[in-house]
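User: structure tokens for this one?
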Amino acid sequence: MNTIRICTEMPGPRSRALMQRRERAVSIAPFHSTPLFLSRADGVAVEDVDGNVLLDFAGGIGSVNTGHCAPEVVAAVKAQADRFLHTSFNVLAYEGYVEVCERLNLLTPGAFAKKTMLVTTGAEAVENAIKVARAFTKRKGIICFEDAFHGRTYMAMTLTSKTHPYKAGFDPFVPEVYRVPYAYCYRCSYGKQYPDCSAYCAHHLEDTFKRVVAAENVAAIIAEPVIGEGGFIAPPPEFFAELLAICRKYGILFIADEVQSGFGRTGKMFACEHYGIEPDVITTAKSLGGGMPLAAVTGRAEIMDAPGVGGLGGTFAGNPLSCAAALAVMDIFERTPLLAKAEHIGKVFQHRAQKWQSQFPMVGDVRGLGAMQAVELVKDRRTKEPAKDEANAIMERCYQKGLVTIGAGSYGNILRLLMPLTLSDEQLHEGLDVMEAAIAHVSETKRDAPLVIV
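Assistant:
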């Protein structure tokens, strides 16, 4: 199961039958980027219930950087399952939870004493990071960024930027949250050009303190080092240094949300390492568990100890099976060159995608760090009008031809890559061949579309 094999129409009859059952039994709210149902997965290859084999460049939305069913992860989970499944760390503690925290304290950036607490999802990690920041600073205000995604629970959803489908109809939101533009150079909110702007967006935070919220009322600024769901936006090198300097000036904590960008995705263990910064608090999830649900909040020891005893936690937080999986994931990163592989994937993709940019007018921007790469599609390069329909058509064409992809962006016009880092060069090029052919097909279809006079 190492290469694409399509033996039915897509989706096949069994997937279609299961989708009909799903429509009768499941709320319409959970979304699907493909109409396929899975039977098994291995590495980067997945097989659906109809026997079709596809390459997975979505990676469980970035949750299997070490590959589907990594043997070390599966073995660790099985071994833990033979001992016990659940006790709740709050009642009967276990060593795995403590060891995960110890290793995260060492792995995360920052030459200072740290402590960690475990939860189950990235949104929970964000919620708890905000609780910790408010408890420590005794302030209420939180600053977040346009195009950010931090989760779907109420504080996390408040911090999230995109309205549809994430926020529409769910208001009112959590108070004392203030949003400012991110360093989205391709679509600068201030109409400036990098590098002539001198990271104006970071410096503009000072103006926010004069016109929106007083600095002394702000507990924390939270940011994804590379914007994930918002479009894989990597800011200029100096952006975070300026941002952190402003935080230090006013006693504001900096929270790095590494839920999607962490654990090797960008070619370093954590994306903030690219910028040479040490966050006060860092949230991790997704590939931390290697496919098992686990998330963490790690920060300066004095900050993490600010909430009182019992102030943080949860019944299933730091589940034993997930802790065993996380320890195996960290072992894999120690023993294998996955960080170098992520850099390699990024270089291969950039080389291919820059050719697409010169060949296909709809490819407006190519960007990313390491294996966290994306292309932004536009209808017109001059106006940069987002090409959402074209992006959806490309993703549909991809899965029909054996490649699982996933979109992103506030305008829904981004194709993003989140494939497992364990794929071979042959699988990488095979997947990129499918993506290139899909872009070419949609570009040709768009060019040949008849002119409609209204």
